[in-house]
Amino acid sequence: MTASRAGLALFLALVRFPFPVSRLPAQDTTKGKAVYVKWCAGCHGDGGAGDGPAAAHMLPRPRNFTGALYKIRSTASGQLPTDADLMRAIDEGLPGSAMPAWKGRLSDGERRDVVAYIKTFSAFFADTSQHVAVLKFSGEPGGGTGAAALKTGRQFYDSIGCRKCHGDQGRGDGPSAPTLKDDAGFPIFAADLHQSWRFRGGGSTADIYHRLRTGLDGTPMPWFSDLIDQKFLTDEQLWRLAQYVRSLSPSKAPEVRDVIHAPQLAGPVPVSPDDSAWARVGRYWFPLVGQVVRRARWFVPAVTGVWVQAVHDGHTLALRVSWDDRTESPDSAWLGFEQRVLETVAGDDSAPPKAEPWPDQLAVQFPRHIPDGMERPYFLMGSETDPVYQWRWTSRPRKSVAGLARGIERFDTLPGAPAGQASFDHGEWRVVFTRALATPDTANEVQLEAGRAIPVAFFGWDGSSGEHGSRMAVSTWYFLALDRPTPPGVFISPVLAMLVTLGLGLVVVRRARRRGTAGAGRRR
Amino acid sequence: MGKLGVVAATGVAMLVLALAGWMRPPLPAAQGGATISGKVKFTGAKPAMPKIDMSEEPKCKAKYTAAPPTDETVVVNANGTLANVFVYVKSGLPASYKAPAPAGPVTLDQDGCRYHPHVFGILVGQALAIKNSDGILHNIKAKGTKNRPFNISQPAVMTSDRTFTAPEVMVPLECNVHGWMHAWLGVLPHPFFSVSGSDGSFSIKGLPPGTYTVEAWQEKYGTQTATVTVAGSETKTADFSFAAK
């Protein structure tokens, strides 16, 4: 901002407020500006228009403060947010976007001041005729996880049209989803309701209910309060809908554990992705991030993580990877959306690449040999001198191959491919790879030994989001451990140890009691 | 005529008036004053408007038996004029001018997964009745920049009322469930606006004497202005012409 513009702003502020206006708590826009310039402007831009140097790599884009449109509010559709709403977004960040939580990084005063400063970007905040009232939210009715409540919620999910954008099973794959744009014209995904930990306004049932009541301004998500006002829907029914939506995600955000335990089964391993046996196998969540190391970089990965399950029978390993993907790519209905994503997100290319009907892909990566120490090949598909062994699956043609990757660019197929079976169900891919634990090609193919920590990593591509080649989502190295059948000693030794401890404890207690009685006798 | 007859006649008259009001958005009442009227012409090749695929909404698709619905961005009339052009007094009213109280709500109807009307005007503070006649999910989103926006879910046959606080030409309205649904609303502090109809003509009535800047707005071709001076109750003509791009 130039000095003259700053002067004008100051003059206007003085004209509007000829007397000092007392606000509690005190907010200082000058200090707020200093905080903003240092921490916020990189994404949100010097003028608050959401156009900082980093903005072009993001989807969703950083908030443009000049329009005073905010997704996460406690107020009616189209109304300004309260200071508390803005503070919440700063404190807790917006999960699933690039906006981090600032509580603990900035002081209470700094965060309050920056709230005051971002409000100066829009004249709406200074307009005293703007009506801002916090909606009256009811408390959550009980029975929210019961079958009856969820059934009611599901009925309204269908009847008020949630599925139009969010899809039949809630993974953001509804018929209107490929046409969605935000108010700035950028492509926007309907939320995947199976990942509540990525909901911008928080993933609790109450958070979901609040978003249904207020809508998300600037996005296609409307508010539903008119329906309650006009008695098309009761407040309780809206709560049931929120409870149903909440039930689609795990009860807690998935924790990342480093080691996938593959139990040994007595019978043959399940080879079909829809075998009911998988329901009894523990699943592990691994987050994926954009590939930003090598050109062409990719900043907005569509595959946000994979769920992995593994079992073996002493001869064969079955590894099931499932992940949310709105599209069974290639899908011509999403080609326009893909083009808009590629045009919106800046990459390394001088011109945005043209949308093409790419397939979906998954890669599972191992070192060629289980290392003795912690030394592993380069996580990003190895290198020329130290290649990695990979299984690669594509949705079209539907097949899986094995090979050696020597960096992102080079992949040499090996003759022995793992068996791969895949199914796509309402926005979720499930792929099962099966392979013999031991293979003849010990030079190139990892030998899957039970009881060892086998490094493993994952890569995902959503073709309909423009992902292909180096535009992909990557994980770091984790471990796969093939459990041995548990020897009986494992069960007996803890019991023995417990009995010994108990015995010793009893002896100690008895002695202490005897002494205590003796001491008490002396005092008497 | 008996008392009952008078009541019945009044009832019929009111019904006719109500129907007339429903058939077209109520024009601001004009008492005396001058009139600016004219036609919006169109030159060049008539652009082909894409057909709208409503297969996703059988209920809407069924309403188009004669011909499939097409995009309404440019509507060229049979006589070669343009419909859906918003013509309004941009400036020239005396500072002392006070708009009359709005006559009643303006209705925007969602019928056959389209907005009726596609282009229309409203007074600041006047009620906009947003009606869903389709009974399937529409969301109605207003994306003004001078007015606060709104985004209402309407999954049933229902009507929601909203008002606008600031003049703004135009406020885009859209449905995100049906990406083809767009309407344009001109919000003005006075009733001196008109929308060109199926013969391309418009008429702004009841103007106080003065020299006015009149602007014609078309959603694809932008704006054109004319300066018109009127006195007494005279009628002046101002024609506009948009060329194909």
What would you note in describing this structure?
The complex is a heterodimer of chains A (about 525) and B (about 240). Chain A contains 12 helices and 14 strands. Chain A is of the alpha+beta class and about 525 residues long. Chain A folds into 3 domains: about 110 residues, Orthogonal Bundle (Cytochrome Bc1 Complex, Chain D, domain 2); about 100 residues, Orthogonal Bundle (Cytochrome Bc1 Complex, Chain D, domain 2); about 220 residues, Immunoglobulin-like. About 5% of the residues of chain A have low confidence. With about 240 residues, chain B is mainly beta. Chain B has one domain: Immunoglobulin-like (Sandwich), CATH 2.60.40.420. In chain B, about 10% of the residues lie in helices and about 40% in strands. Chain B has 2 helices and 17 strands. The longest helix of chain B has 21 residues. The termini of chain B are far apart. The relative contact order of chain B is 0.25. At the A-B interface, loops of A face β7 and β8 of B.
- For the record, give the distance between the C-alpha atoms at the N and C termini of chain B, rounded to a whole number: 62 Å
Helix residue percentage of chain A: 25-40%
Quaternary status: heterodimer
State the CATH class of chain B.
Mainly Beta
Class computed from helices, strands and strand pairing of chain A: alpha+beta
Determine the CATH topology of chain B: Immunoglobulin-like
Radius of gyration of chain A: 28 Å
Strand content of chain B: 35-45%
Average the pLDDT over all residues of chain A and give the rounded result. Answer: 92
Query: Remind me, CATH topology of the largest domain in chain A?
Result: Immunoglobulin-like
Ranges of chain B with pLDDT <50 over ≥5 residues? Answer: 15-30
Number of helical runs of chain A?
12
Tell me which CATH architecture of the largest domain in chain A applies here: Sandwich
Q: How many distinct folded domains of chain B?
A: 1
Which CATH top level class of the largest domain in chain A fits? Answer: Mainly Beta
